[in-house]
User: Which sequence fits this backbone?
């Protein structure tokens, strides 16, 4: 049996399955944490929330490696040194999840993301990254402190802060699924061939941008030359591992209810209800 917390080499199929299982388990832990918090067990809820956030951190790392491997040398191993190091380090998992939430890289709100506002309400998670082992244990065990006295799990967390954190952390799975589509589309567009533009199109472009403040004449000349030259098709490597778009004509609701898509399913059902749609019909059920 392999040692725990040591990540072995992974096949493409194992990468997909591992990602699904990590997101499913993170959702299970975070859902249980929310239910425990509602029942008054704040300490245990926080312990489960930290575990759920660690699982989310591993899923984020898998996502980032799938994004990066498209530009790695063909035939590269999926499991690299960064993944191996993260897999064995609880603090690194929490820090990665914290940074992901602060950046809101795949933000899906109606307005722009606000990293500084995110950092403010994520203060609780930032504290978890520093004291993760102690805080996890506080939710499970009764202990004694020389100054404070008896420490019981039920008194181990700030309920309001924890409730706010859980409401946001539960979005990680949905954001990662959105990110899979966003990254795959961006990467495919980045390597798509662009034919040379006609002189008429170049002239129209030059007329349109020449009078724009802040664009120097040399920059306009450069852009026109790029249009004149066009761009050959590029190459994305490691097709079996990298993020891919669904096949044309694929059912956009095919993953509703699937393991690992719990957060996406929840968000899409809520959206369907807001729009007055029957999500079962959309899913073909």
Assistant:
């Amino acid at each position: 049996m392999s040692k725990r917390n040591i990540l072995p080499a992974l096949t493409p199929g194992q990468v997909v399955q591992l990602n699904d299982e990590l997101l499913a388990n993170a959702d299970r832990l975070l859902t249980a944490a929310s239910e425990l918090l509602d029942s008054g067990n704040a300490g245990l809820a926080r312990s489960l929330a930290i575990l759920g956030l660690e699982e989310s951190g591993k899923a984020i790392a898998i996502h980032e490696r799938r994004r990066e491997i498209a530009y790695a040398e063909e035939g590269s191993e999926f499991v690299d040194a960064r993944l191996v190091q993260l897999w064995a380090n609880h603090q690194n998992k929490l820090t990665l999840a914290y940074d992901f939430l602060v950046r809101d890289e795949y933000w899906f709100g109606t307005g722009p993301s606000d990293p500084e506002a995110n950092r403010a309400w994520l203060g609780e998670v930032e504290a978890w990254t520093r004291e993760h082992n102690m805080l996890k244990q506080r939710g499970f065990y009764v202990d004694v402190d020389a100054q404070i006295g008896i420490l019981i799990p039920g008194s181990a967390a700030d309920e309001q802060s924890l409730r706010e954190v859980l409401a946001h952390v539960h979005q990680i799975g949905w954001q990662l699924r959105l990110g899979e589509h966003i990254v795959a589309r961006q990467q495919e567009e980045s390597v798509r061939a662009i034919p040379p533009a006609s002189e008429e199109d170049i002239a129209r472009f030059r007329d349109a941008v020449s009078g724009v403040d802040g664009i120097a004449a040399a920059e306009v000349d450069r852009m026109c030359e790029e249009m004149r030259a066009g761009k050959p098709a590029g190459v994305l490597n490691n097709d079996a591992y990298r993020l891919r778009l669904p096949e044309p004509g694929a059912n956009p609701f095919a993953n509703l209810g699937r393991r690992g898509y719990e957060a996406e399913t929840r968000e899409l059902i809520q959206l369907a209800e807001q729009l007055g749609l029957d999500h079962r019909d959309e899913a073909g059920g």
In short: The two ends are 42 Å apart (CA to CA). The mean pLDDT is 85. The chain is about 60% helix and 0% strand. The CA atoms of residues 51 and 181 lie 27 Å apart.
